[in-house]
Amino acid sequence: MAARALGGPGDAASAALDELSRNFTYGALGAGNGSLSRAWYRRNQIHLFGVFLAILGNLIISISLNIQKYSHLRLARQQHPRPFFKSVLWWGGVALMAVGETGNFAAYGFAPVTLIAPLGCMSVTGSAFISAVFLKENLRASDLLGMTLAFAGSYLLVNFAPNITQAISARTIQCYFVGWQFLIYVILEILIFCILLYFYKRKGMKHIVILLTLVALLASLTVISVKAVSGMITFSVTDKMQLTYPIFYIMFIIMIASCVFQVKFLNQATRLYNTAIVVPVNHVFFTTSAIIAGIIFYKEFLGAAFLTIFIYILGCLLSFLGVFLVTRNREKELLPQSYIDFGNIPGKQTLDKIQPDPNGLSYGTLPDGSDSTQSQSGEKKEA
Questions:
Q1: DSSP letters of 64-86?
Q2: Which of 92-96, 181-185, 299-303, 329-333 has the highest mean pLDDT?
């Protein structure tokens, strides 16, 4: 009794168990509190709209990636392939990519960062499913298991992410921007970024962890600024104009600059390492960085129960594991290329087939590794 009167551990545990019970109560008549009840829907309808925008945006991104991939495959099969940027189909994929990213951008204006950022797993798992259906790629058992884990993790995230509805006004962003928590966070982030950049530029260390940590540090600023810009635009539409405040344009510049440098380091990582490694590691780093940024800048887990935080972390881990399972051991598909067979040329010795080299002036390489142009010149000298 004394512990309950003083608000001790008994109250905290009881509140956490009550919240867990509310989130897993289904089909109750009347004032139900479960995740399928009307009461739960009314409490979370704004967040659910943001979740809907994020999931829809990620699925559209998955479709756009597969359309661009299909356009590359179709161009490679042509006898005289055109540059990919002259393909209408490729540009259609780019347009869909812009639509999907717009949906993600708008989602941050309606839901917390800690809810929207982990839902990026829908893009990876959705892309694997779409490519299996439309591009006839193999759908492995690990893909199905990964999709199941990602969906289960997303369900836990939607139910146990912080239920905080913030009116993102310019004055709110200004207060958060000069808060001591954020200032300490930015100073530490700048120090880590400069140290990693020194090793990357001066020491020539281009390990995947260094590159993707640089991307993640920039991503935290991107997420903070994206939510700020999106939230202020939403506030301007629903309540009062916020676009006249200087903080809006400061956040907009931070958003653009951080996105540009993110793309630079991410492209470097994809050039040096296999995409099957870069995608899951980048997803984990990006999501973790975004969650930390949401907790520090927007204080999204303030007052949350321990059990809620634990199940939220479990949902994140399930989505991470799902992404790893979907992307692991996924080999790069070789584009179909024609072979040149010298065996049909009269008066020539029968040779094995030679693979053309699209990046050089020679026909390719012979089975013993010698260059084909050198072999041809050697034949002329012997003749």
A1: HHHHHHHHHHHHHHSSSPPPGGG
A2: 181-185
Q: What is the pLDDT of residue 132?
A: 83
pLDDT of residue 195: 95
Cβ 168 vs Cβ 299: under 8 Å:
no
CA distances to 54, 65, 112, 143 from 61, rounded to whole Å, are 10, 6, 21, 19
Tokens 């120090």 -> residue: 191
* CA-to-CA separations, 288 to 77, 100, 150, 335, in angstroms, rounded: 41, 22, 16, 35
User: For residue 377, is it left (φ>0), alpha (ψ between -120 and 50) or beta?
Assistant: alpha
The residue-averaged pLDDT of 105-117 equals 91
Query: DSSP string of 262-311?
Result: HHHHHHHHHHHS-HHHHHHHHHHHHHHHHHHHHHHHS-TTTT--HHHHHH
pLDDT tens digits, residue range 40-64?
A: 666 677 888 889 999 999 999 989 8
Tokens of 328: 């692991």
Tens of pLDDT, residue by residue over 147-173, are 999 999 999 998 888 777 777 889 999
Alpha-carbon distance of 88 to 341, in angstroms, equals 34
Cα–Cα distance between 327 and 82 in angstroms, integer?
30
Decide: 131 and 69 in contact? Cβ < 8 Å: yes
Helices 88-107 + 38-77 axis angle, to 10: 160
Are 119 and 54 in contact, with CB atoms under 8 Å apart? Answer: yes
365 - beta bridge partners?
355, 371
Using the Cα atoms of residue 302, residue 307, residue 308 and residue 312 in order, give the sign of their dihedral: positive
Question: Pick from 253, 231, 258: which is nearest to 46 by CA?
Answer: 231
